[in-house]
Design goal:
The chain is of the alpha+beta class and 400 residues long. It folds into 4 domains: 1-140, Beta Polymerase, domain 2 (2-Layer Sandwich); 147-233, Hydrophobic Seed Protein (Orthogonal Bundle), CATH 1.10.110; 235-337, Methane Monooxygenase Hydroxylase, Chain G, domain 1; 343-395. 48% of the residues lie in helices and 10% in strands. The chain has 18 helices and 11 strands. It has helices at residues 8-19, 29-35, 51-57, 106-111, 134-139, 149-155, 158-170, 176-185, 194-205, 212-218, 245-258, 265-271, 276-290, 297-321, 327-337, 350-355, 361-376, 383-395; strands spanning 24-27, 45-47, 61-65, 70-75, 78-84, 86-88, 100-102, 121-122, 128-129, 142-143, 173-174. The strands form 3 sheets. A 7-stranded mixed sheet has the order 3-4-5-2-1-8-9. A two-stranded antiparallel ribbon has the order 6-7. It has a two-stranded parallel ribbon with strand order 10-11. Helix 7 (158-170) packs antiparallel against helix 10. The longest helix is centred in the C-terminal third of the chain and has 25 residues, at 297-321. The radius of gyration is 28 Å and the shape is elongated. The termini are far apart. The model has no long low-confidence stretch (mean pLDDT 93).
Amino acid sequence: MTHISPPKYALNVLHRLESAGFQAFLVGGCVRDMLMNCRPQDWDICTNALPEQVTALFPRTHPTGIKHGTVTVVSLGKPLEVTTYRNDGEYADHRRPDKVRFVSSLDSDLERRDFTMNAIAMSASGELFDPFGGKSDIAARLIRCVGEPDKRFDEDALRMLRALRFSAVLGFEIDGGTLAAIERSSALVSVIAAERVRAELEKTLCSERPQTVARMISLGLLEGFVKPARAEIDLSPLAVLPKTPALRWAGLCAILERNALISESESFLRALRLDNETLRCVSAGCTAVKSGIPLSPSDYKRLCARLGDAGARCTAAAAEALGHRGRLSALRRVIRSGECRALSQLAVTGGDLEALGYHGKAIGGELQRLLEYVIESPEQNMRERLLSLAENDKNSPLHS
C-alpha cells in the first residue's frame, strides 16, 4: 500500500492515546501523501479524546486551537496536532465555523473535510478508514469534494483556491461536479482575506504547474485583484523560471501587465499583502523591463548597480516570462564573474575621494562616474588607477 511509515514520534502519540482507551488515527494530508509514496511534512492525528483528556495524557502540550478541539502535542521533541472528532456548526463568514460540536464517530469527523483525498484516516497498524473513496480518487488523480460541493464551498470559500492549488501541486484533475460548483460559487472569494489568497496563489505559482493560475483567473477566483479575462491567458512561460517566489511573481506580473489584467505590479502586489522586499524587487523589475530588455554584460551590471542583485533577477525573470529566453542565465554569468557591479565593489571609497579634496554631493557623483567606467572596463578596478582618474576628474574644467 505504501512504502512510507509514520515517524516514531507520531506513533508514540497514537499508541499513548490507544493505551488510554481512546481511538486515534493519522488523518488528512499525511495519509494522502503516504498513499502517494511522498514523505509528509506534517503529521496530524484525530481522536475521540476530548482536548482536556489529550492535555492530561501528555506532559508537553500547547492549546493552539483549543476552540476547535486542537491541541499541539510535543512528542520526542517534535510537535504535531491532535484534534478531537468534531462536527462544524454554521459558517456565517464562509471561512470558519461559528462553533464546533465534539462527536464520537470517526465517520462524522471525516464527513466535514474538504476533499475525499483528505478524508482518509489510518490507524497505527496501517488500517485505512476511507468512507468517501479517497484512495480511489488518489489513484485516479482526481480532486473531488466530500459530499455536496456547493455546501463545502459555502462553508469555506478558501477551499476553491485550495482545489486549484492541489491540482497544480499534485498534478490532479478536478472532478467535473466540483469544478462546476467552483464556477457557481466563485463570488464567495470576496470574503477571503488577501493574505490567504496570496498564500494559495504563491503555492500555486511555485508549483510544477504555475499556469494553473490562469484557470484561477478565468474562474473568477482572483476577482478584486485581477481584471476579468475574456480568454484564459498563457502562463506556461512561468514554468521555466526557478521556483523562487520573487521570480515567479515577477514573471506573473509581467504577463498580467502585458495582457492588461493589472494596471501595474506594485498595486497588485500591495493588495495581496506581499512583504515589502518582494514587492520592491518585483515591481522594480517589471518597471525596468518595460524600459528595455538587458542584453550585454554591461547592461546587467548597470541593472545590478541600480536595483541590486535581487531586483536585477526579477527584471531578468520578467523578461524570460515575456519570451526573452536566456536572460536569467546571462545575469547569473555576470554575477558569478565577480566583476564590479556595485559601489561597494569599487576599489576606492568615499573616504578616498574625500582625501583627494572631494566634498558633499561631489563624492557620490564621482563614485558613480568611476563605477560606470569600471562596468565598461572591469580590469581597471584597481585602487591606484581609480585614484588617478578621480584626481584628473577633480582638476578637469568640466568638474570645476
